[in-house]
Amino acid sequence: MTKPTTQPAKVTIGLVQMTCTKAKQPNVDKAVARIGEAAAAGAQIVCLQELFAGHYPCQEEDFTLFDDAEPIPGPTTERIAAAAKQHQVVVVGSFFERRAPGLYHNTALVFDADGTTLGMYRKMHIPDDPHYYEKFYFTPGDLGFGAVNTRYGRLGVLVCWDQWYPEAARITALHGAQIIFYPTAIGWQAHEKAQFGASQHSAWETSMRAHAIANGLFIVAINRIGTEDHIEFWGGSFVADPTGTLLAKGSHEHEETMLVECDLDQIDFVRTHWPFLRDRRIDAYGDITKRWIGDA
Q: Quick check: pTM over 0.70?
């Protein structure tokens, strides 16, 4: 991988953790304002949470919510692109995409600091859990995994449920990503928080910190906050460095915009000291593409 000549060794990332209303426009206005605030404070890359333009829609199977989806490009993506250009920051955003009649995706875009759309990722892993009825709304992505060069680094994007799959992080890393962003909407349900809440959150954080370690790169997880219908979103947005160390972690209760500096030169240092990528036995992994091999 060749670094873009303008890429700095150190980049400052802004994580926008915010509450959302059911009405779209206040959320879009808030996101645009937070992008500006983060840029003014020194952010060079800003990440928004999953489906930031409204309430998380998948808590019920409601046909009327398809009306909230937009084509790409569309009004909301154009607002975010304009904010990226105005403030000269890279922005990662997640959108409810209307691709064609009856065909909808959960789609993340990377906007470069001049407002150009550099990358599109359609969420590959689609959950179907109580109050996470995403299979009702979203077609699984068909663009695969990848990474794009931006003004401030080479970025990969995965979305929420993708965070549980080491294969997704690995392939994104192999495309040269220096930072993987996970726009997320995850939280507790009231009836299970007391018994399972701590372990659920720990598993979520641990899985992504493990991706940072196994792949020797930075992980940025940005989660929403606040209670919407059945789910109390737990916030806790964080950045992990290539050793899995938490550089910053957000509140479980409050909106905030965190700024975190990442030294991209750390990637080479860690990978030469923990050579997990080098020592992979790529000749022995063919079975990973099978559904199950226990009966063989």
A: yes
